[in-house]
TrEMBL record:
This is Retroviral nucleocapsid Gag protein p24 C-terminal domain-containing protein. GO terms for biological process: viral process. The keyword Lipoprotein applies. It comes from the Eukaryota. It comes from Hirundo rustica rustica. The keyword Lipoprotein applies. Pfam families: Gag_p24 (PF00607), Gag_p24_C (PF19317). Residues 235-303 form the Retroviral nucleocapsid Gag protein p24 C-terminal domain. Keywords: Lipoprotein, Myristate. InterPro entries: Gag_p24_C, Primate_lentivir_Gag_pol-like, Retrov_capsid_C, Retrov_capsid_N.
Length: 329
């Protein structure tokens, strides 16, 4: 699926906010958000075109409070020399109140982009930042796609969307067995935001459970993406190098398993086994010194972090002494 491109944009101001309407060339529909720019959006050397300011009130439905997207987009374009892009629009709902539109703050989006640039898309820092950002907002399908388009490369976006749709297929199959009629009657196009369900005004009315699952699958698809231009071996073949810190080895196994293994139940078990079996000889000795049949990952990390310390040396000596005494008896 190609990402929507702007054909025409109009902005009209009301009460300090901006109502944004973008006509999409690939759907012919109008959405209350920015459409994504084309594949050259990050590579353009030309300065971003000025965003027109059109005065004049426009009536907005009572349950929508639109954000000043003009200011949000202008801030990012100014600081990062980008062409105007779609920024996600999300909604919040107070108990008993109407659903209202708010924006993910531009600084949060910039932090995600910076985290990928500085630390990498596989880094624990990016994953934690992404998790905290998404947990603080409710996103529509369009929002998920727009956010991915802003922070990923074009090839990463295509891979992300492929994985996201595949995960949502499993969600839809689960809904088919639900006793909730609102979930049971959902279609794939409603979950992915494809026509005829590509307008935000309709997407915000999806069941809260569905919106949460859509966002959850979007985050899961993010962590399954490899760094651009990298090759990754099968996670069960990853082994600790002799000079590699144990925690670095653990991170490599966990990150690869999250991208390659979609079974949430089996994955932690397999990660534990791989870490124990593929650790370096020195770390294996430290793990074995714990005297436990199946030590947990935190226990193994703690034991291996003690390697070389007086406590670690004393533990090894005590174990060796115990073996010697046992053999004599």
């Amino acid at each position: 699926m190609t990402r929507p491109q702007l054909d025409a944009q109009t902005m009209q101001r009301e009460g300090g906010g901006w109502n944004v309407a973008a006509t999409l060339t690939n759907t012919g529909q109008t959405e209350n958000c920015f459409a994504l720019a084309d594949a050259s959006r990050f590579k353009s050397k030309d300065p971003p075109p000025p965003i027109p300011i059109l005065e004049g009130p426009q009536k907005c439905s009572d349950d929508l409070q639109l954000t000043d997207w003009h200011e949000v987009t202008r801030e990012i374009c100014k600081e990062e020399n980008l062409n105007p892009l779609a920024m996600p629009v999300i909604f919040s709902q107070q108990a008993g109140g109407p659903r209202t539109w708010t924006a993910i703050p531009s600084h949060e989006i910039k932090e995600l982009r910076k985290a990928i640039k500085d630390s990498g898309i596989c880094s624990p820092y990016f994953k934690q930042l992404l998790k905290s950002t998404l947990e603080g907002h409710t996103l529509t399908p369009n929002d998920c796609k727009n956010l991915a388009g802003v922070i990923l490369t074009d090839s990463q976006y295509m891979l992300w969307e492929f994985k996201w749709r595949r995960l949502l297929t499993n969600v839809l199959q689960m809904y088919r067995q639900s006793t909730d009629v609102d979930l049971r009657t959902l279609t794939m196009s409603k979950l992915t935001g494809d026509p005829p369900d590509d307008q935000n005004d309709n997407q915000v009315n999806l069941p809260k459970t569905a919106l949460d699952d859509i966002k959850k699958m979007a985050r899961r698809a993010f962590v399954q993406i490899q760094p651009a231009g990298s090759f990754e071996k099968a996670y069960n073949l990853i082994s600790q190098d002799s000079s590699e810190p144990f925690t670095t080895f653990v991170d490599r196994v966990i990150q690869a398993a999250e991208r390659q293994c979609g079974d949430d139940i089996a994955r932690p078990i397999m990660i534990r086994d791989i870490i124990e079996n593929n650790a370096s000889p020195e770390c294996k000795r430290a793990i074995k010194a714990l005297g436990k049949e199946r030590p947990t990952v935190p226990e193994m990390i703690d034991a291996c972090n003690q390697i070389g310390s007086p406590q670690h040396v004393a533990t090894i000596q005590a174990n060796e002494l115990g073996k010697t005494i046992g053999e004599k008896n």
